Amino acid sequence: MQLLLNLLAGVSLLVWGTHIVRMAILRMYGGELRRVLRRSVSKRGPAFFAGLGVTALLQSSTAAALIVAAFAGQGLIGTAPALAVILGADVGTALVTVLLSFDLSWLAPLLIFSGIALYLSSQANAAGRFGRILIGLGLIMFALQWISVAAHPIVQAAGVKVIFASLTGDVMLDMLVAALFTVLCYSSLAVVLLVATFASLHVIALPVALGLVLGANLGSGVLGMLSTMRSTPEARRVTLGNFLFKLIGCVLAVPLAGPLDQWIAGIGLDPAREVVLFHLGFNVTIAALLLFWTEQIAKIAEQVLPARAASEDPSKPRHLDPSALDTPSLAIACAAREAMRIGDVVEHMLAGTLTVLTTNDRTLAERLRKMDDVVDELYTAVKLYLTQIPREALEQREGRRWADIVSFAINMEQVGDIIERILTDLEDKKIDKGRNFSGAGMAEICDLHARLIANLRLGLSVFLNGDLKHAQELLAQKVLFRDLERAYANSHLGRLAGNTVESIETSSLHLDLISDLRRINSHICSIAYPILEEAGVLARTRLKTDAGAAAPAERIGSPLADNASAAWQKRKPKTA
User: Per the CB 3.0–4.6 Å rule, which of 39, 115, 380, 513 could disulfide with 134?
Assistant: First the structure.
């Protein structure tokens, strides 16, 4: 039992090592690798070599396939160029397999020691992340050595010999076993290396090993399809095309399995070398045969997976790319783009509120209230997407941006709730009762609304660009808006004292409305806080100190506002 556990531990360590390398490279260089792929898809040749180079670094053709599928799903590249990248990715992972098949056990301790030293000394910067890559490579090499040592006594057991004797060279059975194992391991690279190790120990014969290699390739195609089951048809076409490549290759290779076995055996290489070279030759042959057939395969994939009708549901996220989660910087950019959509919806709601206010349009009010459900759905989607980003992989700057997006989404969701309540109050207290604001009251509300729209657009710009000057301007607007709200409330009380009929009928609604608009403005201005705090220009308290009072605020900036402010200054109580 102990020997079997040692073998299983070695296999698990091999899979884990490939996972660590893939994730570390994606987190450290994912943005650059994606840019390389996007810039190299205009022609077959550059696309093929881009896929080869990226996969040689990632050590996973499945990871490269998912990245390219995500591009296709977003409409950034077509299916045919994406398939050319996939062919290069398959050759790239085969080259990595050949490299790792050499006896590099002497290098494993050095890589693990160096990687751990780098990681522990500087986890938060690039050196620490590079240390994770070294650790993963060392674990792969150590796992291969461990498997070789652990398998020696096991293969001598009678029961094990019976199990491996069942793999008698039936290519179809061998392919099925290897395909299932590849899906379970989530790595064709690990499976091919394991097969090469067993072949070098003479646990399995060469015909069996070749069948297992074919199955590992087929399994990687199945794995890609399973990984994109919930993606758009445009994304799933790429992984379907990849599976068709593998399937065509296996169909062509199965009848040639016997002659290939005899030819490879006649070369007289080490069994492990024969396995990895066959894996490389298989993928190179597929690429050479099918690289010029990518358009035809793409058409088949498009017929099998036709595009869905364009969705008119605005509550469905458009920029939250699941494949970007392995690259935190890109995932944060995706979340920021989706958060901007929330801001756009809120702006539309806020602009429509004035129309409802002036025209008593019930239909528009109902439509705007339903848009708050859109805001809630997008807010939930962004929040859940951000929670899937591994926080430990974020740099300090990325961590701040993560928090900024969460704060922005929360503020926009709360603004949407306030607007929904305003619309309900307008229907209940104004439209249903046939009341109207006074001319002066409506002018005040329109002035506040115009300022609010301007501040929201400024806030969206601050969130997107992080400009310090605009952030300071936005925060200054918070003070001005607060003073203006007080001044307009005081003007309204003056109209009540003058027995203005419209003001008396809408007094409660008027005061609630300008108070809600001020609350909306406060949420918008909160966007500036992270930028100002990072720059060190945000005061910790608004209380006056012995050093003197704060500088006087700027003028509010309109005749209407000036008159209201002057009236408020006359009426406000004197302080000692």
Answer: 115
User: How many of the other CB atoms lie within 10 Å of CB of 469?
Assistant: 8
Helix axes 79-100, 271-290, angle to 10 degrees: 170
Contacts of 1 (CB under 8 A, 6+ apart): none
pLDDT in tens, 410-435: 999 999 999 999 999 988 888 888 88
Tell me, what's the pLDDT at 119?
A: 85
The span from the CA of 510 to the CA of 504, in Å, is 10
Q: Which of 226, 144, 213, 143 is nearest to 184 (CA)?
A: 226
Burial of 410 (0-12, 13-18, 19+ CB in 10 A): middle
- Other CB atoms within 10 A of residue 157 CB: 12
In our burial notation (b when 16+ CB lie closer than 10 A, e otherwise), range 225-245 reads bebbeebbbbbbbbbbbbbbb
CB atoms closer than 10 angstroms to residue 420: 21
For residue 557, the 8-state DSSP code is -
Q: Which of 125, 200, 110, 189 is nearest to 155 (CA)?
A: 200
Structure tokens at 117: 């030293």
Output DSSP code: residue 394.
-
- The two most distant CA atoms of the chain are separated, in Å, by 109
Q: What pTM value is reported for the model? A: 0.65
> Is a pLDDT exceeding 50 seen at residue 475?
yes
- Which amino acid appears at position 542 of this protein? R
Q: Count the residues in the chain.
A: 576
Cα separation, 112 vs 135, in Å, equals: 5
pLDDT, mean over the chain: 81
H-assigned helices in 204-293: 206-227, 233-253, 257-267, 271-290
Task: Characterize 498-516 residue by residue with b for buried, 16 or more Cβ atoms within 10 angstroms of its Cβ, and e for exposed.
Answer: eebebbebbbebbeebbeb
